[in-house]
Amino acid sequence: MSDEPEISRPLRPLATISRPAFAVPAGAWDAHVHIFGAAERYPHVSKPHYTLPSFYGTDNSCLLDTLDVVGDRARGVVMIESGIKDLELQEFHRRGVRAVRLDLFKRARLPLSEIQSYILETEARVKPLGWHLQFYAPGYIVRDLTGFLSTLKIDFIIDHMGYMLEEDGLKSNDFAELLKLLDGDHAYLKLSGAYRIAKKRGYDFVEPVAKAIVARAPERAVWGSDWPHISNAEIDTGELLSLLERWAPSPSTRQKILVDNPNRLFGIPT
Prior knowledge:
Blueprint: H1 61-70, E1 76-78, H2 86-94, E2 97-103, H3 112-126, E3 132-136, H4 139-149, E4 156-158, H5 172-180, E5 187-191, H6 194-198, H7 207-216, E6 221-223, H8 237-247, H9 251-265
Parallel strand pairs: 1-2, 2-3, 3-4, 4-5, 5-6
């Protein structure tokens, strides 16, 4: 990963975002959005990955303040330090947090044993709260962790369909092994980041990957926009959602992906 921050561009005007190509079911979730606030109130980390405004590391103030305003219509995902107190985690839970994000891009150069220890330590801290883990990781780390992840006793989501990019040396058999995780009791894959996987190849390139996930385990998939598409601010969020009609043509399957599965993960009563 480059040490130079990516330069974010202005957001796409709301009026130019397309409507979804299908009737979105009531109670649908966008399970992957980022929250930012005024720089003078929410200072970013010293070496951000991107600009406008940036990201906050393990300072979750902006997220928590947003949850206080939005209320029960939203849930939060935090990043935490290993030494965080139980009382602080419980306070996060009270305010609507239901998961912790593990950024394995930041740890990609560590020995695999250290990454595994980090995951187990985090699992032990948040499992008593009924939270789940969310993995933001390069595909080659996902590949190397697949066997280990199958042993976890906590629900977890892997972002961006596993992020298994050909340019990172990932093969079809690596993805096949990833899909096997969905046969267990705890793994979910997030149908997000299509533009990050496709890059300049077009969304048709991503379709077989997304369809394979849906076909394997529609009860283990969730959808997320990755809004505001940092460094790709020109992305049409409506078009991203419309892709789901191609990936999951059945309305009953989209009901699972958009409503039932995230309700279960984020602890929403049905």
